[in-house]
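Lecture 7, part 2: worked example. A protein chain together with adenosine-5'-diphosphate.
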Amino acid sequence: LSVWLKTPSLLETRAYVNGQWIESGRKFDVTDPATGRLVAQVSDFDVATTANAIDAAQAAGPAWAALTGKERSTILRRWHDLLIENADDLATILTAEMGKPWAEARGEILYGASFIEWFAEEAKRVYGDVIPGHQRDKRIMVLKQPVGVVGSITPWNFPNAMIARKVAPALAAGCTFVARPAELTPLSALAMAVLAERAGVPAGVFNVIPSTDASGVGQELCTNPKVRKITFTGSTRVGRILMEQAAGTIKKMSLELGGNAPFIVFDDADLDQAIEGAMIAKFRNNGQTCVCANRIYVQDSVYDAFAAKLADKVQTLQVGNGFDQDVTTGPLINDAALRKVEAHISDAVGKGAKILTGGARSDLGGTFFTPTVLRDVNQHMVVCHEETFGPLAALVRFETEDEVIAMANDSDFGLAAYFYARDLSRVWRVAEALESGMVGINTGLISTEVAPFGGIKQSGLGREGSKYGIEDFLEIKNICLGGM
Ligand code: ADP
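Predicted complex, written out as structure tokens:
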């Protein structure tokens, strides 16, 4: 892989702790999901090294927090610029370990960098308040201060951006950070650390621990009293475990958990736009995003037309190795992911759904799967209740607005929802009625650094991005001045 990189030193396989690159005797393999080939052997670290990183982060905290917002901003801005300058190499590393098409990987690098830029700007705007006193001799001030050491656990589907969305507001606020990237995709995280070091992020402020011991490192982060906050993106199942573990030391939690996004097409929608939106909301990242449309509800009178058009469009997707030009759809991350898509399809077909296109593994073998459209899906099928995390568009027919809102909200999850409609009063009614943290109206793409990202119900706690995103990393202090 390093021969493909303009800057081979970005391919780092050691841990980054307290400003030092450290190697372990134990290694684990990172493989390319498109080929199964070895990409790199990465140092495997344990709980003791995690504890050392937490100590380093705690020691580095006061000096980092004491910098002015502008000083932290300057360093973050340099980091952003280096991420942009090295976007091609970072995309190559990302595609090699995760499989998404190279252009999409490059898009992720820019998206991740946009959070570093945004929070570099926000670092200067952590404002407090002055509150008129409740007694004549009193004045009240509100200060915002960094939470302290942050422990981060992130998944493989966005190996760069999930870390960027967390570390940027944390460092901007004056917190220090210990990251445990997913073991399938540690290289993107380590490359970020290489550039953080070059940008002048001081030793101990950003630490990265590659480890195959997810539960051990997770437990250390969640139970070590020096860690004041956990930020996690991943499944609701693991989110619950972390919340329980963190209860002992009452840590703050930000959790970006599973979703099961409804995507609703009303009869007054622009159908072509709705198809475009569905393609992005469903098939981006091969369906492996937590905001992917999972259940597509289409109103009766436009159902057949929508189904036929979507199936046509899905047949234009090019499945293949993410490094090949024109490929739009890479492999799934592993066999378990492949089996989940198959299970959702066979459950639906067994209960009466019909395959319009796809429905089977690709001839390419490995974990490649043919993008699939199913019609005649209903609420009794597993796909309407569980996140597929794969290239399966499941089309459910509905008659009325009330009916579809009830179906859309019939979920433990509440991350993203999408709908297409033109009638203005319907647009307001439906946007207000949907139980989710984010609603895309006449668009299939809602993620940006300028808007708050996050869910309600069992999809999580807290928000990433936007002016709200930094609040998750700040404590509010009330200063009451008396005797005036
Ligand atoms: P996904 O299905 O997206 O991989 P997971 O919740 O299983 O979602 O994984 C998200 C991240 O959490 C990964 O980095 C994984 O290694 C890590 N993880 C899995 N189990 C645990 C655990 N018990 N404690 C801490 N981290 C965990």
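The mean pLDDT is 98. The longest helix spans residues 102-122. Keep this in mind for problem set question 3.
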